[in-house]
Amino acid sequence: MSNPNKPLLPPPVPAPDLSVSLGRLRLPNPILVASGTFGYGREMVGFVALDRLGGIVPKTITQLPRRGNVPWRTVETSAGLLNSIGLDNDGIEAFLKNQLPWLKQCGAPVIVSIAGATQPEFVQMADQLEGVPGIAALELNISCPNVSHGIDLGTDPEMCRRVVAGVRGVTKIPVIAKLTPNVTDIVAIAKGAQDGGADAITLINTCQGIAVDWRRRRPMLGNVIGGLSGPAIKPIALRCVYQVRQALDIPIVGVGGILSIDDCMEFFVTGASAVQIGTANFADPRASMNLLAALPGALAEMNATRMTDLIGSLMAGAGAPAGELQKAAGNQTHAS
Question: pLDDT tens for residues 180-197?
């Protein structure tokens, strides 16, 4: 017989639905790790439960092995990191033989980042990866700022479209185009990727910059120019996500300066369906786990039970739609 004096417990709160979709790609949650900041995953086993991640993007691979740029390759800045690695990697054959077999048993979706010097090289690599078990998606790195051909293919809308369309024509694997902020019109480049058949786009890769040793009167990076990442570029990344979200329907992966759960939520409401954690991994190898643990609480704070309740929900002013903010910003620019 039940005790009538026993206090009634509140019903259990169901766990929120953290799953998200990037076109045809379904992810268990929106917390991914960014290419070039997580190695091939092996290095992070002692810090991260890999099977809990929304996705792993290993370091970019190229058709042939690359030695990368001459030192120095990294310089810490006051608000981030300047790097000029130069896509140092062992090539696609070594990746398929030595890295992918290990990655695909980790339990998280594996999004393979590829870079080609030309459009045909992107297509060749995608064709080589088609049908290989364990690959959830391809991320096309057409935006690396520290190789000679790095951003050429990602600064012209038509060339971007051709790269994506060529890859799309040889593979059924979902395709994500990673775009550079070092352009005058990010929406035009994103539209090129969308028109080429991309399932989603990643915004943004690093911003070009240099570091100087004025006493020696020399650049600090061996390649002189590198890519700036970290907190300094978050406002730029958010601006790119906002502009593309307002103009296009393509799903967006936000990346750039994400350190805290507040940073994540800013990207989500601005229009990103998922985020990638990059430079934060160097400062705190458990950054992705900490953000994933904080996500349910942030959703509860917004009275949301699903990630999709928040994505792209940005409002402006006193409840005005975000599109009106864009219009107002344009009017202010013309007025000045």
Answer: 999 999 999 999 999 999
